[in-house]
Amino acid sequence: MTEVNRPPRIGGWTRLVTARPRLSLLVALVITALAVLAGSGVADRLGSGGWEDPDAESTYATKALEREFPASQPNLLLLVDAGGASVDDPAVAAQARRLTERLADEKGVVGVGSYWQTKSPALRAEDGHEALIAARITGEEKQMGETLDRLAPEFRGAHGPVEVSVGGPVAVRHEMQTTIQEDLLRAEMIALPVTLVLLVMVFGSAVAALLPLGIGIVAILGTNAVLRGLTEFTDVSVFAMNLTTALGLGLAIDYALFIVRRFREELATGSEPLGAVGTTLRTAGRTVLFSALTVAVSLAAMLLFPQYFLRSFAYAGIAVVLLAAGAALILLPAALILLGHRVNSLDLRRLFRRGRRKDPAEASGATEGRAWARTANLVMRRAPVFALGTTAVLVLLGLPFLGVKFGTADDRQLPSSAESHVVQQHIRDGFPGSPGGGLEVLAEGRATQTQYADYKKRIAALPEVARVDGPLLKGESAYFTVLPKGEAVDDPAQRLVGELRATEAPFDTKVTGAAAVLVDSKDAIAERLPLAGAFIVIVTLLLVFLLTGSVLIPIQAVVLNALSLTAMFGAVVWVFQDGHLSGLLGFTSPDSIETTLPVLMFCVAFGLSMDYGVFLLSRIKEEYDATGDHDQAVRHGLQRTGGLITAAAVILAVVMVAIGTSRVTNTKMLGLGIALAVLMDAMIVRSLLVPAVMRLTGRATWWAPGPLRRFHDRFGMSESEGAKPEADAVEERDGDPGEERDEERDKVVAHS
What pLDDT, on the 0 to 100 scale, is given for residue 56? Predict the structure, then answer.
């Protein structure tokens, strides 16, 4: 039976966003231009730290030592290389003392000391050819960077008989910030043209392909302005700019793909542009809204952690998600109204069709739809095999994460050729005790020399202690330097932190140093991780229930989403911690994973997986409401969204891989890890595992108790435009109940 054409229902939102489309786009253009101005210079105001807990004991001790004993916390190291001579050679020593005096006279530099002043063995290389000048640059992070930019050219290079290299924590952070900015620009130059080519391949039309790209650019520029505003009130990490670019392009393309695809489907069935936009916003628009909310929820969980590194990604992520969704739901409909059928113009694929006839069905993607339908049929016929097989593969890929070791971000984040990395590597390899790698114990309160001496003996007797220096006194404060026997942040050093904090003293003690910062960061994450996880799970369950009205589907969505991330976590440990493929990918393995990275990657990847999950589930729900046939709904949902989700995942993976070309290891890990997670989710979980599991759960998939059904009827949303018919009202037909209907749809699209 041929369906009678009904006049399109134009909702209030459609009327609002399409009433004056030219004015809407003009206002958007003006706002975007203002965002460019507001966001200019944002990179220079971003920080490159933020891994520590600001309320931790180690943070308090670090700030107190910086204030009272600046020499105890050097952040600038000058590596003085005497070549073939000894650092004790008179000419070398004289030049080194002159450099030390020059550095001490510089503005913004305190606590200057050197081997030639103190004769400390820790400041002299074991081979006797290198030694260190240590100092502290004062001020906020931006001020320290400016001071370093002024000092480095004056001290770097040849000075008589010595060669000087600049290193230390402030140099590492400054070089990391500069490298990230350069890498981000290169990533954008790679991602934008490749993304445009892929969009043209997906849409065929160059006009349609430019729409998602435009939405992405608006989202990125708007988020830069938001971050610039936030820097007036709080610290924001420079790493967040990478997420802004990746999610801005990725999510804007996802949302625009979904909306433009649905709009073109409606045009192909004979709808006028205004009616097509109305239907698109009622269906795909609702899905985009739910998708944006689920992604924002996952990213908002990072606000629960104290480290500003994680909070920065929440700021950037939430802003870019909301801006991408807002642009897709406001600007895109206005553009579609103006374009109308011209959205299909400039089919660049015709360039490759000369000299041969092309089947219209193939050109339109109908063949692709039938391929996804066959995939769904195959998976559902062998549902137990696919469900168990894919689960086993994903679990196996995640097993390396069981051996994860957590550490801190250091110079090894930078390329091996970076000057600050070279300096620190020389110190690690050639100096005794790894200067700067010890623990500092701050003692506050009045005490006698005898009490200090007794305390020093107690901590020197601890099994992991190699040497104790101090105390150095100032007023009623003092500090001790404790060198562990092993590496600065290995497991024994972390145990030593706890032992030092448990050692009795007649005064208040606070422990800091690299191992102490790591211990406190791990404790802060472990304390808040259950709350963050519960927040993500509960809100996601609620949102998916509002979309589907099912009790089981939200649980399936959360469990399968988490399962889809196992390959990412396993690869992170196998590649970046264990160092496999380090030569191919061009990084130095730090033998550990920075503590905050798994939290960040989970929140981002979980949100993106839910993004694709909502796209698939909404189309399944729409078909189930229309037919009441569960198997047909699953098959139809995969047929209609399988190619779309795969295309969106590939495009987002391209963006993330471009980010993953960064020379900074954490950024490389973030980009490549999430690219893998996105591809695994789209190609394995959404294509194989979800339809297999839904086939196994059958009609029970849609069950909900009476009170929850009534709640969903009142507050829920879906893509459906009509009520679901009762199961017994569905006409029984031979063969696949939806095959003929879907083929008719494909023919309509093919010949449009």
Answer: 92
